Structure formats: C-alpha cells, structure tokens
Amino acid sequence: MKNEHPDREKCLKMLAEYNTPQHVVRHCVAVTDAALKIAGALMEKGFSFDLPLITAAGLLHDIARVEDKHWLVGAEFAHMCGYDEEAEIIRDHMTHTFNTDLKDLKELDIVCLADRLVLEDAYVGIDARIEYLIKKINADKETTDYIMAKKEITRSLVKNIEKIIGKTIEELI
What is the pLDDT of residues 2-19, one digit of tens each? Predict the structure, then answer.
C-alpha cells in the first residue's frame, strides 16, 4: 500500500519537530510555492504532476539543512517517516541534472528547478542564485565549472518551459 503524501500542515509540523531553523522553513515554503506555480502552469498546457508530492517534497527538501550532507540526512528522515517518494527527491535535489526534454519532466525536476530559482525566501532567478552559491561555498575552478554547466542546463529548461507556458517564470512567480 502506497503511503499518502503529508499535506502542508503535516510538513510544517515535521519541520518544527525537526527544529529546522525558521529561515530555512521560509525557504522551503518559497520553493514549494514556486514549484506549484510552475507545475500548475504546465498542467494548464496538458502536463501531469502529483501536486501533493511536489508540495511535500518542496516543503521537506531542506528539513535537515543544518546537518552535513543534509540531502542524505533529510532523505533518511523522510524515509523513516514512511515518505519514500519525498525521500528520493530530497536525496537528489542537490545534484540532480535536468532532462531538458519536457515530455519527461517529473516532480523531482519541478522541485529542483524551483530550488535553483529561489534564494532564501524570494524568487531571484538562476543567475543570482548561482552567483550566491559559488560565493557561499567559495568554489574552486573545477567546482565553479561544474556549477556553471548545471546552470546552462537549468537555463535551457527554463527557456523550454517558458515557451510552453507563454510567459517567463519570473512573470509567473
């Protein structure tokens, strides 16, 4: 039997019980709201997404943000709570490479895209988000090159989505 996805209220309770800092909770809420707007716009164009999964995974993706390897710790926590689909998204959100073929978009892509467009609790777009990340981790050349390659894949995905929905993601959000 498949577990139901926790709703927004349950996820916020889980974040509080885990003692996730409030600034991280605000980030998770902003990512979730952006992800739902992107998914909703695509659904209006015939795409299909599991919105409760996007909601839960978005809200919980950084539950363990203050831990080392927070994506693994958070995924294990979600798994222990019986939320395996959320755990998969949490585990992959830091390293996910998008498939830019829109017909293959999954909930993971939507949550990761929103996470890469939101800084703290505000939509800032890919350029500002990546610039912040590189400075935050004091990235060496190899890491910067890796991040910049991911940025270009993300930019391509954004452009493809914008063509489908007929507006920019910035206008949408």
Answer: 568 999 999 999 999 999
Residue ranges and CATH numbers for the domains of the chain are 8-172 (1.10.3210)
The structure's pTM equals 0.94
Q: In 10 A of CB 173, how many CB atoms? A: 18
DSSP letters spanning 53-88: HHHHHHHHTTTTTTSTTHHHHHHHHHHHTT-HHHHH
Q: For 67-87, what is each residue's pLDDT tens digit?
A: 999 999 999 999 999 999 999
Cα 26 to Cα 10, 149, 152: the distances in Å are 15, 28, 27
The amino acid that residue 78 corresponds to is: A
Which tokens sit at 8? 């927004």
Query: Which residue matches tokens 């991280």?
Result: 24
CA atoms of 57 and 83, how far apart (whole Å): 9
CB atoms < 10 A from the CB of 56, how many?
28
